[in-house]
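ok so i was messing around last nite and threw this chain in just to see what happens. nothing serious, just curious
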Amino acid sequence: MSGARKLTLVILIILPFYLFPQFVDVKVEIITDRLPEKERTELKVLEQQLPGYFENYEWFENKFDIQVPLRIKIFPQSVNNSGYQRVFSGQFFIYNESGDTRFLEKSFSFVYNTNQPLVHSPTIDPLTSPFDFYAYLFIACEMDTYEPFGGNPLFEKARDIASRALISEWPRGWKERLKRLDEIVALRDYRMFKYHFWHIMDLVNQEKHKQISEAISKALESLEKIFEVNSRERYTHVFLDAHARDFIEILKEYGSDEQIQKLIQLDPDNKELYESALRDKE
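result:
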């Protein structure tokens, strides 16, 4: 599939070896308004460390030159200085640039001590393991858009981290993360819908216009299967809200009135946008 479809460039980062990063333009914000001044100052160091932790590491063999612009916001609301480890508690929000994949943890805890380095390690760590888990989760979701169920090996890497963390000294939050992972993996029609959507975009970029109508039909079939089970399936609606305008522009150019009407029926949340596109075709 075309690496240009998401309007990213293949960037070569010069390190001790050539590395094709899976994450680019990682932006991290740690909102520390509720913390003492000492902790606010020290968490600024973590805020500066995190982009490099994601960007300067080869998470997997990147045969598609996948690049995910990532956004992370952490809202620590309290800190516990008891013992030899400092535990921060609050909320955690992570999402990609388009916003079609995003996760919120309302109860997020992590350990961070003064000038603590961020080190990639297979050992479960109360600071880095949650970041590792979400890194693989995002790459898996991205791989699903390049190949049908292409994210399976990466979902298993995330599962391995969560499973080991559950029986570690720091099990808090991991049961919920594992449940979230299982939900996504089980949503096979949602995953196929994403694949079909990006396949349509690739066909447009490659000017393979004769194949687009059939690809649209396949995407709508997957969408219908999703909503037959659960009309309010959360991950699908997040994806649709992020790409509704893109989808309707493709339908205006290459789809039929029937396909647009089908989309309106399946996604009434964006009905006004879709109907305006249908009027433009008249």
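not much to say yet. The chain has two domains: 3-186, 208-281.
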